[in-house]
Input
Amino acid sequence: MTKFFRDFVKDESGASAAEYALILAIVGSAIAASAILLGDAVADAMDRATDDINATNT
Output
């Protein structure tokens, strides 16, 4: 496995390491933003559900 990564890093054909780093940064940023937005949406939905449950119990 380490040989694969060593060969991958040394391979100069195709995209360079800088291009791979840029792609990784873009994809990573998109995943992080999606996780934050999804987390906020889930938290809001849970808060609304809790409010509805509490409203019916009073």
